[in-house]
Amino acid sequence: xxxxxxxxxxxxxxxxxxxxxxxxxxxxxxxxxxxxxxxxxxxxxxxxxxxxxxxxxxxxxxxxxxxxxxxxxxxxxxxxxxxxxxxxxxxxxxxxxxxxxxxxxxxxxxxxxxxxxxxxxxxxxxxxxxxxxxxxxxxxxxxxxxxxxxxxxxxxxxxxxxxxxxxxxxxxxxxxxxxxxxxxxxxxxxxxxxxxxxxxxxxxxxxxxxxxxxxxxxxxxxxxxxxxxxxxxxxxxxxxxxxxxxxxxxxxxxxxxxxxxxxxxxxxxxxxxxxxxxxxxxxxxxxxxxxxxxxx
Length: 296
Description:
The protein folds into 2 domains: 10-216, 2-enoyl-CoA Hydratase, Chain A, domain 1, CATH 3.90.226.10; 221-282, Orthogonal Bundle (Lyase 2-enoyl-coa Hydratase, Chain  A, domain 2). The radius of gyration is 20 Å and the shape is globular. The strands form 2 sheets. It has a 6-stranded mixed sheet with strand order 1-2-3-5-7-10, sandwiched between helices. The chain has a 4-stranded mixed sheet with strand order 4-6-8-9. By secondary structure, it is an alpha/beta fold. The chain has 11 helices and 10 strands.
């Protein structure tokens, strides 16, 4: 097994092909910092590259998932040019300095080759809510609370949430939550379609693991990686023909592999499948099929 890296603001544990990524600033309610942004991106780089990982669970340490941006800089919290403690700002002479840290994280999660499950254990406010949006399955504790509070802090929704949130919950609900900036409970998040299911606090992580196990124990990792990107990226397609083009290439490519043969034969022989093709070296030649989109 590949050695699991250590991070300043996160814990990452891998067992039985499931990675558990825990936001780990419990004394600060796991508030988001520039270092956490760097750590999250590096963690998803690791999980993508490791064939020991078939699914990723993201949760928080202590009583919060993530209470939003760390506001300890006071009035200049969001005035990045006035601060010298933002390790993610990069070259101050380029447009890269304009990029918000939450957006860098959500775009990295969007690109993930592994399914991502949010297990929201407590407060999820600001970037604590928006970082979940590109995660594939979101479940929550009955203690969880959500808030898209940006207008109440004098800024606007970030982390590419103006793209993700309306696609998940519809434009009217997205606007209502973002206009008011109010904090709401887990039941409203469930009713609004933001989360899949609610669980007692001590049952949250077992429920997340059960979802992950259903994936990693029964499916071909390369097929899952392709499916994830096909589904997410087709949300922006302007015609179903675009999906048909990618579907056709993917079925043709996958149909020639040992995975497809194993999928059929394990079904016919009534036994658990053992898929041999790895994400690290088995993605088809046409992947990725979209152009790079640099920040400019």
